[in-house]
Amino acid sequence: MSPSEDDSPFATACRATNRSEFIHALDRLRTSRRLSYRQVSLNAGDLALAKSSAHAMCTYRLPKQEDPLRAFLTGCGEPPATHDGWVEQWRRVTASRANRRPHPAAQLVQSSARGSSPPE
């Protein structure tokens, strides 16, 4: 099977080109292990991952630091030897210029430059 045909959660993470695709890979990891967010949180043990943080990582928000990602991976039962590969892919995706959101003040400046007024 070629890497492009590999449908594993990690292969999905490796192919991710944006945050949404990486988030999808994290959720695929969790669902492939048939874990609830609560179970992921409990399985993280001393790494302390809130159930709400596990949910956020699988639905709409990547962690800003690698420790919560490592806690999530531990909670999903990923062997520690695989964590560095996941973290490397997370860094690649979060560093991509396409994934950077402009600061809210920059959005106001851009909308003012176009002649529109900010929403009230």
Which tags fit this structure?
mainly alpha; 120 residues
Provide structural commentary.
The chain is mostly helical and 120 residues long. Helix 5 packs across helix 6. The chain is globular. It is built from 7 helices and no strands. The protein starts with 8 loop residues before the first helix and ends in a 7-residue tail after the last helix. The protein is 61% helix and 0% strand.
Walk me through the topology.
Elements: H1 9-15, H2 19-32, H3 37-43, H4 51-59, H5 66-75, H6 80-95, H7 104-113
- Structural category is mainly alpha
Write down how many β-strands occur, each being a DSSP E stretch of 2 or more residues.
0
Average pLDDT metric: 85
Rg over CA atoms, rounded to whole Å, is 17 Å
Fraction of residues in H or I helices: 55-70%
Tally of helical segments: 7
Order of helices and strands: HHHHHHH
Strand content: under 5%
3D shape: globular
Low-confidence stretches: none
Q: What summary fits the major beta sheet?
A: none
Q: First CA to last CA: what distance?
A: 54 Å
Brief digest:
With 120 residues, this protein is an all-alpha fold. Helix content is 61%, strand content 0%.
